[in-house]
Amino acid sequence: MSVFSEAIDTFLAPIGDLLKDPLVTEIMINGAHEIFVEKKGLIYKVDNFFPNEDSLLSAMRAIAQSVGRVIDNDNPRLDARLPDGSRIHVVLPPMAKNGTTVAIRKFSKEELTLSDLIQFGSLSKTAARFLDICMYLGKNVVVSGGTGSGKTTMLNVLGGRIPKTQRLIIIEDAAELQVHAEHVVNFETRKADPTRGVNEVTIRELVISAMRLRPDRIIVGEVRGEEALDLIQVMNTGHDGSMGTVHANSPVDACTRLETLCLMGETKIPPDAIRKMVASAMQIIVQCSRYHDGGRRTSHISEILGVDASGNYISRDIFRWMQTGKDSETGRYIGEMVPCNYVPSFFEEIIVHKLPFPKSSFVAPEWVQKIKKEAA
Ligand SMILES: Nc1ncnc2c1ncn2[C@@H]1O[C@H](COP(=O)(O)OP(=O)(O)OP(=O)(O)O)[C@@H](O)[C@H]1O
Ligand SMILES: [Mg+2]
């Protein structure tokens, strides 16, 4: 492994400073001579460059080789991880018109916690405490959001709040989650490599295995295929407190997306029934959003209550982020997360478990009501 690390370090020397800079969260290479980075949610062009396409391509070949894969004309796309855990995706020309195109999502060594998210303004203290309670009570929680909106980070933070006594099985395409709990089993999928007689092992298969390995809770890092149906079934069959992330722009979209993914497989279950299964599996949806000011925030925490008579998902916002202004100097949005005057259906459980979370925490502050009246 260290031989590979050294080779990769040498090949990636032109961006060595960016890889080391803890403020850089993403490095985007659009051909040898154009490199951008993301810092604090905003994108900047940097002066770094690779001498030529060949040197950039050699770097990508070395990375592919270190994870036992190939990148060439026949395999022009690569998903891999760098020795430090950073995630990398590569597309070669002629598909990539700019030249070899790469994005590196830096692996953050500092693990974020609920209090970090509060400090960043991504969650309010009350909302964080509420999510903590949801983890404690074993609610099924789906984290929804667009690309790079902070889904994995949120799942990681929430996973760390699962009661220590429980057995957790985590299934991912590329191991990213680092959930700190006492009893964690990690699974990672395998890609097929026909040249070496290696068969594919999918998320779906690993979910089925996980079910036979006495899990208390199952976490699927990213639900993007037929495994949605398996996760829904897991959630509906007593593995309360299971979790996953899904690519969607609102809590209701997240349900619809899961439903579509369920139907992708060759299931004999009729679509209406699938919708009901999704609705009953979903309990809490945490919506992550990336705003135009570069801020990543939790835009909604919602409860899914089922489907109504016309077949629409019933979703109720419990908390949501509300913008109240904009800092004229920094361009940053000003706002806060507010309760939405909705008491979740499981409030009784909060009382029964004697959890310190008064009903008044769900009441929207007066200024919100005022703004709403003005806007109406
Ligand atoms: N609340 C936050 N405030 C600031 N930065 C954050 C926040 N949440 C996540 N980040 C940072 O944003 C980047 C993307 O986060 P993350 O990988 O969690 O997103 P994602 O939605 O899972 O992305 P993808 O769609 O690529 O899987 C990371 O660098 C992470 O450290
Ligand atoms: Mg992710």
Number of helices: 12
Task: Let me know the average pLDDT.
Answer: 93
Beta strands, count = 15
Identify the CATH architecture of the largest domain: 3-Layer(aba) Sandwich
Number of separate structural domains: 2
Helix content: 25-40%
CATH superfamily of the largest domain: P-loop containing nucleotide triphosphate hydrolases
The CATH topology of the largest domain is Rossmann fold
List the helices and strands in order.
HHEEEHEEEHHEHEEHEHEHHEEEEHH
State the end-to-end distance: 62 Å
Overall morphology:
globular
Largest beta-sheet details: 9 strands, mixed
Radius of gyration using CA atoms only: 22 Å
The class by helix and strand makeup works out as: alpha/beta
Task: List each distinct ligand once.
Answer: adenosine-5'-triphosphate, magnesium ion
Annotate the secondary structure layout.
Blueprint: H1 2-11, H2 16-20, E1 24-30, E2 35-39, E3 42-46, H3 53-66, E4 77-81, E5 87-91, E6 101-105, H4 114-119, H5 125-136, E7 141-145, H6 151-159, E8 168-172, E9 184-188, H7 203-211, E10 217-220, H8 227-236, E11 243-247, H9 251-264, H10 271-281, E12 284-290, E13 296-307, E14 313-326, E15 333-339, H11 347-352, H12 366-375
Parallel strand pairs: 7-11, 7-12, 8-9, 8-10, 10-11
Antiparallel strand pairs: 1-2, 1-6, 2-3, 4-5, 5-6, 12-13, 13-14, 14-15
Helix pairs in contact: 1-3, 7-8, 8-9, 8-10, 9-10
Bound molecules: adenosine-5'-triphosphate and magnesium ion.
